[in-house]
Amino acid sequence: EIATAIKIGDQHFGLLAWGEETGFEDYDIKKAASDLTAGLQFLIETAPLSDVLLIENVGDFFHANDQTGTTPRGGNNLDTDSRHGNVLRAGTQILRQAIDLALKRFKRVDVINARGNHDPDAAIALDLILQAYFEREPRVNIIRNDCKFIPWVFGETLLVVNHGEKKPQHQYEFITSRFRE
Q: What pLDDT is attached to residue 166?
């Protein structure tokens, strides 16, 4: 068996940026949706054929965890576009469509949604929504993100996905003790 992996890194879906302030182009949910949809479509359609496609969201898929528009731990204010429910709905729809597209080319699709520092609860909601949507599709495996360290085993290979910690030593110790076998 062969696997192909597509990694989504720190998407921050729902971020709002004003080009005059950042020195780049304006950025909002429409631009993010267009870019993410086009990128996933291109990667899925051009990926080498294999038995399994892993869609690996490494965390902070959503810019904000909830409608307060602040980071959960530090309480930092975030520039967000639209209502949180709208952002969650749009982001979930994009991933759902990507999985549907992947099912046309791959025998199985595995999905990991790591919990980031911006979206620890929203990532759990994303996981639950996708699990419910694909519960009757045996070729889709939404790997639960109950733990911040998410294992994916393929043959004799172990991949552990985690958004990151301030102390990398903690990551190494946890992974080697928890997933030793």
A: 73
Residue 106 is predicted with a pLDDT of: 98
pLDDT confidence tier of residue 29, bands split at 50, 70 and 90: very high
Angstrom distance (rounded) from CA 157 to CA 111: 16
Q: How far is CA 23 from CA 27, 158, 173, in A?
A: 11, 41, 41
Cα distances from 26 to residues 16, 17, 31, 88, in angstroms, run: 8, 6, 8, 21
Three-state SS at 38: helix
Q: What φ, ψ does residue 96 adopt, rounded to 5°?
A: -60, -45
Give the whole-angstrom CA distance, residue 90 versus residue 22: 25
Residue pair 91/126 in contact (Cβ under 8 Å)? The answer is yes
Average pLDDT rounded to a whole number, residues 118-142: 98
